Amino acid sequence: MIADQQPLFDSNIEMSGEFGRDWTPVSLNGPWSEVFGWSLEELLQTPFYKLIHAEDLQKTVELGAYTFTTPHPISIENRIRCKNGHYREILWDIFVTPGTDKVLVYIRDITKLKVERFLAQKSQQVAHIGSWSLDYSDLQVCWTEETYRIFGVHPDTFTPDFKNVFSFYSPEDVEELRLYYNTLPESARESDREIQIFKPNGETAFIRLTARVLKNNGVNVYLFGTVQDISAEREVKRRLVQAKEEAELASKIKTDFLANISHEIRTPMNSIIGMVDILSETSLTEEQRQYADVLSRASENLLRILNDVLDLAKLEANQLRFENIAFNVHDVIYRSVELVKHRIENKKLNLEVNIEPSVNTIIYGDPARIEQVFNNLLANAVKFTEQGTIQIHAHKSNQPQFIAFKVIDTGIGIPPESIPHLFRRFYQVDSSISRRYGGTGLGLSICKEIIERMGGKIEVNSVEGQGSSFNVLIPLSVR
């Protein structure tokens, strides 16, 4: 079996010496004083059994006596008391000097090694990772303490070997595993797999099994790896997948409901708006005409809300489709202006439309969706402006594949802290805005998604109390 051993006369051994039967040193070589704090004179006059930790003394004395009955060197681990009262972990390699009552010792300070082993053991417990090894020369298997815990067995009652380690797996997996470990060294140096195990107490667990092979002159000599309990990790993943599926189903149900209900409501709303228009053309008293106007505005506002909800449902379901047809940009802009012209006149606002000659009159895209964006931006500009001017600019972009538009107002403006959130769904600057001006907080978010899905861009610049400018880049051709 391969073991972590060093030659007896290794030049790296820190200290050596010659001791009598009573553990009193005859000679000492190396930094004994530096390691233990005692002077060399003190050490040479002190039987070392007086410095050995009480818990290690009996074992050390018994093994020390056994040294004189065997021609083979033995190794002893114990704790030696330093002059400051602390103990250091020491590994002794001891063998008898032929023909004498003295022994030669070679020692290493393994305090750091013991601490590292302790920390490694605790780290494995925290991470639920154990280690294992297989020696190809004798098929001996070694496990660390955490490996025993993961498999639900105890080292006092279970000794792993190349046969019984397969008893933790289902019959279907055993043959695969045997083949796996027999062929692994020939096919790859490293491997990683997940598999289910069955513990003696009836519990099951999922583990991640890693392996790596060591070769010597092309011959496989050693296989080692880790085993990690990933049952909790897999359960978390399972719940996340389940939660994701449930959320997607709930979202689909909501989206379908929004689409259906908004469609069902929009049909009678169109009838109401149509009847109001017909009513407005009949002979009405002034008071009746005012009532009809209120009913018309309320119906149109409700229809806009329904359209926003329907568009939101389509966006979430990724069912919003775009045409790519030739249309006149001027027509789109002026149709949007006509929709708000009456309100602009009622509020006594100025309206300026400036379309630069360099702007292509005919472009390719979806005129209905672009008009929807203009309608929303213009409606907001009029809604939030009590005096001043509404401006529409269309000009050539410095990016030749785009047309640039601006909708500028002299309204209430937007606080700087609200601008980063302005295009979020359902976002409104504050509750007083909603109470005073109405709206769902969907319009701008829908505009942004429409423009970005076309391949364009929308931004806003605003100064609170002075007005806002919404800047839109629209591609010349929607793909």
UniProtKB/TrEMBL annotation:
Nucleotide-binding listed as a keyword: yes
Presence of the UniProt keyword Nucleotide-binding in the record: yes
CDD domains according to UniProt: HATPase_EvgS-ArcB-TorS-like, HisKA, PAS
Domain Histidine kinase: 260-478
Reactions the enzyme catalyzes: ATP + protein L-histidine = ADP + protein N-phospho-L-histidine
Pfam families, alphabetized: HATPase_c (PF02518), HisKA (PF00512), PAS_3 (PF08447)
UniProt protein name: histidine kinase
Organism field: Bdellovibrio svalbardensis
